Amino acid sequence: MISMACNIAGVPFKNPIIMASGTFGFGREYAEFYSPELLGGIVGKGLTLHPKAGNTGSRIHETASGMLNSVGLENPGVAAFLKDELDDMTHWNTAIIANVGGSNLEEYVQAVAMITENAQKRRTMNRRGVDMLELNISCPNVKQGGMQFGIQTEVAREVVRQVRNVTALPLVVKLSPNAENITQMAVMCEEEGADGVSLINTFSAMKIDIRRRRSVFANTYAGLSGPAIKPIALRMVHQVAQAVSIPVIGMGGISSVEDIIEFTMAGAAAIQVGTYNFVHLHAGAELVHGLEQWMQREKVQSLDEIRGIL
Amino acid sequence: MANVISNVALVPGIYVMKIEGKFKGNMGQFYMLRSGTGYPLLPRPISIYDIGEESISFLYRVVGEGTNLFSQLQPGQEIQLEGPFGNGFPQVEGSLALIGGGMGTAPLLLAAKYYPHAHVYLGFAQQAFGVEAFEAVAASVQVKVGGSIVEQVDPTLYANMFSCGPTPMLQALAMKTVDTSSRLYISTERHMACGIGACLGCTMRTRGGNRRVCKEGPVFPVEEVEFDDLHGV
């Protein structure tokens, strides 16, 4: 009997396929095309304590085998998320992960505290709340906060430590490939009590409009994602998985079942799908079915059989 | 996946592709089209040009690798398409003008078919295309090649106007409409990734706050549009 199920920090996932933050909204839009219940989990759009309008001007540019985005964390804020989105999300039988960003330390702590308090309150009413937190210290598209916390290990340490102090929810930290040393960063997260790490966020990158003689993006730089970054993401997941004992969630250009297997062999406990959602509207459903078929064909009963074999 | 029935150049670089199947869609809505399995990665949002009983058509200009691949498709070959997406032009009552510039004429043909009493104004920078399709269905068609078609439009004659085209053309039309009672709806354009409102890549700043061109748009009442934001893209 094949099982795709996995468990990360006590949270059960029916399969290892999770939709990455910023690529799946809060699930509602994709629910018109396939059931989110097919998925292992959904990471909601990146949240900040206060609503954020995001960046002006162009936000998307396609590159060779990838794309640049400069959305700038447009989101309704934590309070609106808890009030307007969470009920719909928790209605689906799939793990719900809240991705939280911030412009400064206090914002991170307050946002996480609000979500945690909400989860506790809902639990007392026998209602599901957020199952897990993903701390975003790696967004390259906001001028303040975001990636600046995710580059230097000792700066990031303070964020992870203070957030850990205010939440008992399972906590995964999303790491930046732009970090000075992503392995050290992951080790720090484990030392500070994170339950897992997810990697990688987008690479800080650029596109120049030579006719206008300026960057395509108002924020000058943007985040590169998609198949172009997959080999680098895979290497980083492999290195980090060997350095920590907490689960590693792998992501970066995953666009096929074979990519999922590669990340699993590199040590990923689960994976996230981002840009591929834009390539194929039914990407999540396609990958879940494809992974099951692959396991049947290859006579792999559980992904534990191949996890971290390299 | 669906089969291409025909893919014909109207003038160099501008094609009409007809695809087999039963498709839904209203005037001003769009589909996400993708050809091939590799580069380019993202589907392209293309507005619906025409819908028949057994087919859908798209008018497109070859501007990059995605549309270049489209132009190479032969009858019988497959293309991926998803849709219809977005909010198109509204249902209106009373007199109506359809004002299109260049490729902006594409989403207006369905409106011309839906409103046979509409007066159509088509402007082109260098070479007219697709005019016959409008002439076959519209009450009147005025065409201008070079210069501004907006000069020929008198907004006071129309209760409603639908427009799509280059931003300067849309802005000129908006200026001309300011002191009239004519209601102007314009179709906007932005780079898109998902096409369904999830990625926020096509968000546009409007007077009512951020709006997703793919979901709340691409058609907006002109009062909501911030032309500075459209120019900036």
Report on this model:
The complex is a heterodimer of chains A (310) and B (233). With 310 residues, chain A is α/β, with parallel strands linked by helices. Chain A is built from 10 helices and 16 strands. Chain A has helices at residues 28-31, 78-91, 105-124, 147-151, 153-166, 182-191, 230-243, 257-265, 276-279, 283-298, and strands at residues 6-8, 11-13, 17-19, 41-43, 60-63, 66-69, 95-100, 132-136, 171-174, 196-199, 203-206, 208-209, 214-215, 221-225, 248-251, 270-273. In chain A, strands 3-4-7-8-9-10-15-16 form an 8-stranded parallel barrel, surrounded by 5 helices. In chain A, strands 5-6-14-11 form a 4-stranded antiparallel beta sheet, with no helix packed on it. In chain A, helix 5 packs parallel to helix 6 (182-191), helix 6 (182-191) crosses helix 7 (230-243) and helix 7 runs parallel beside helix 8. The longest helix of chain A has 20 residues, at 105-124. Helices cover 15% and strands 35% of the residues of chain B. Chain B is built from 5 helices and 15 strands. Chain B has helices spanning 65-71, 109-114, 131-135, 167-177, 227-231, and strands at residues 2-11, 14-20, 30-34, 44-47, 50-51, 55-61, 78-85, 96-101, 119-124, 140-145, 160-164, 183-187, 203-206, 209-212, 219-221. In chain B, the strands form 3 sheets. A 7-stranded antiparallel beta sheet of chain B has the order 4-3-7-1-2-6-5. In chain B, a hairpin with a 3-residue loop joins strand 5 and strand 6 (55-61). Chain B is globular and about 50 Å long. The interface between A and B is medium-sized, with 33 and 29 residues.
